[in-house]
Amino acid sequence: MFVDMPLAQLREYLPERSEPADFDAFWERTLAETRTHDLAPEFTPVASPLTTAEVFDVTFAGFGGHPIKGWLLLPRQAAGPVPCVVEYQGYGGGRGLPIDWLLWPSLGYAVLAMDSRGQGAGGWRRGDTADPYPGSGPTTPGVMTSGIHDPDAYYYRRLYTDAVRAVEAARAHPQVGAVAVGGASQGGAIALAVSALVPGLACAFLDVPFMCHIRHATEITGEYPYAEIAAYCRAFKEKVEPVFQTLAYFDGVNFAARAATPALFSVGLQDGITPPSTVFAAYNHYAGEKDIKVYPYNGHEGGESAHAMERIAKAGKALG
């Protein structure tokens, strides 16, 4: 069933942003601290039965200098540098296996699939990266409330920073040219943050993005992962306002207002996990060139293969 406002209202929905005064300074400081660690990208060739792509096991230094894993797939026998799409994972997922990432190499592009630290044991796509950050405090199961008592300690500070470094790692490879970013759900949230934090990206694929208009999301859906925040607030009633003060540093709506990267969004009007009004809040605030594909009878799966074709068309224009 439709779970939110009518589409005409969604297209006009432009809620006021709740933004910390030091939002930009926070992210400038975060990235500056991270860049004191050598990126040290490593691309180790992996034996593979794949005949259309070369596979590399990637390691680079993310937040705190922590080692972050990924896969880089290059189309075989590519002549010179090729465009690359850096892909981020949905909630609970990891980088999986190389065969999960064949779409872009099949089109002649490279892909760097970044692992999500501390995720990838949920049963749907495995991960290989630990999150060694100490002192996160009490949490609801999942990562949504890990370190939520303090923006500096919050899990998504580390994850979004890793994602910026993944772009830097891709750009460090001699066979990579222009770079785009993309992901769905949590991956869309990460790509949205990166679209604002990294200049010079060719485009961003932002599918059913999570972590947008977050407080509103917790008020209109009881679905996970937003329900993790609600559960934490039920347990720590005196911390409700500090929780949302922390989350404002990570809200996609605030990143959207700073983004200059050309972006393709997608939304399902029957999505109870990332309700349409949260996606449109980010889309309508998005400062860069943008388009959105609306799938009225889809939920959190979005446009599925039909939307993959939309991504391919956008890549053809933005990446060549």
UniProtKB/TrEMBL annotation:
Matching InterPro entries: AB_hydrolase_fold (IPR029058), AXE1_dom (IPR008391), CE7 (IPR039069)
Binding, substrate: 91
GO annotation (BP), single: polysaccharide metabolic process
Residue positions of the active site: 185 (nucleophile), 271 (charge relay system), 300 (charge relay system)
Keywords attached to this entry: Hydrolase
Annotated GO MF terms: cephalosporin-C deacetylase activity
Entry-linked Gene3D superfamilies: alpha/beta hydrolase
Keyword Hydrolase annotated: yes
Chain ranges of the Acetyl xylan esterase domain: 2-306
EC id: 3.1.1.41
Region (Disordered): 120-145
Keyword Hydrolase: yes
Broad class of enzyme this protein falls into: hydrolase
Protein name: Cephalosporin-C deacetylase
